[in-house]
Amino acid sequence: MQKINYKLIRSWERFIECFISVVTLLPFSSEKKLIVLFNNNKMLNYFGFYPFTLVQSENVATECSVLDACLYYNTSQLDKKIKLTLLYETLCPDCQKFILNTLQRYVWKYGQDFVDFNLIPYGNARRTQLNNTWTIQCQHGPVECALNKLHGCAISKLVYVGKWFPLI
Questions:
Q1: pLDDT digit string (tens) for 38-74?
Q2: Is 60 exposed, middle or buried (CB count within 10 Å of its CB: 0-12, 13-18, 19+)?
Q3: DSSP string for residues in 45-80
Q4: What's the DSSP call for residue 132?
Q5: What b/e string do you get for 97-110 counting C-beta neighbours within 10 Å, with b at 16 or more?
Q6: Most buried one in 46, 117, 134, 160, CB count within 10 A?
Q7: In the chain, which ranges are E strands?
Q8: Are 72 and 66 in contact (CB under 8 A)?
Q9: CA of 15: how far to CAs of 42, 75, 150, 168, in Å?
Q10: Residue 143 pLDDT greater than 90, yes or no
Q11: Which of 30, 86, 25, 13 is nearest to 52 (CA)?
């Protein structure tokens, strides 16, 4: 199994764009398992790992040079969701842009069935302790701290991602 080459992934937007372009073209089997047929190794080389490699035929896997990856996936990764953890700040413009333009638009829309979302509304905050009392200072002020708490409560209390994710 190859290691991820992060230098090849220039931005999350590009990663998601490539990811979605592959996922939206995928056929689904009658068991609703993801099937990826690579015509060449360009996508494998771009990602540096094999995100989904479940093929129905060993001949196809051999022809596409992904047989070892398919065998690994079929024995160790089958039916497991991709874990996605995001630490964010509720009032951070870059976080908001990423959540709205990338995470919601692409990953949530196309990947909610096979991605295990873990959003942590904490981000770039500082904790300080004075006389056994902790205080948290958020980068974008006290309103952000309050919104981070609200998001954290929603995630904690609503439990099911389908209920809390649209609120984020």
A1: 333 333 333 333 344 334 456 555 655 666 666 665 5
A2: middle
A3: HHHSS-S----S-HHHHHHTT-HHHHHHHHHHTTTP
A4: T
A5: ebbeebbeebbbee
A6: 117
A7: 82-87, 115-120, 125-130, 133-138
A8: no
A9: 14, 26, 30, 22
A10: yes
A11: 25
Longest dimension (CA), the chain: 68
Tokens of 104: 């919601």
Residue appearing with tokens 């333009």: 101
**Residue 163 in contact with residue 114, Cβ under 8 Å?**
no
Contact between residue 52 and residue 76 where contact means Cβ atoms under 8 Å apart:
no
| Strand pairing class (125-130; 133-138) | antiparallel
Q: What does the pLDDT look like over 3-23, one tens digit per residue?
A: 444 444 444 444 454 454 444
Domain boundaries, the chain: 6-76, 82-167
Q: What angle do CA 94, 124, 14 make, to 5 degrees?
A: 35
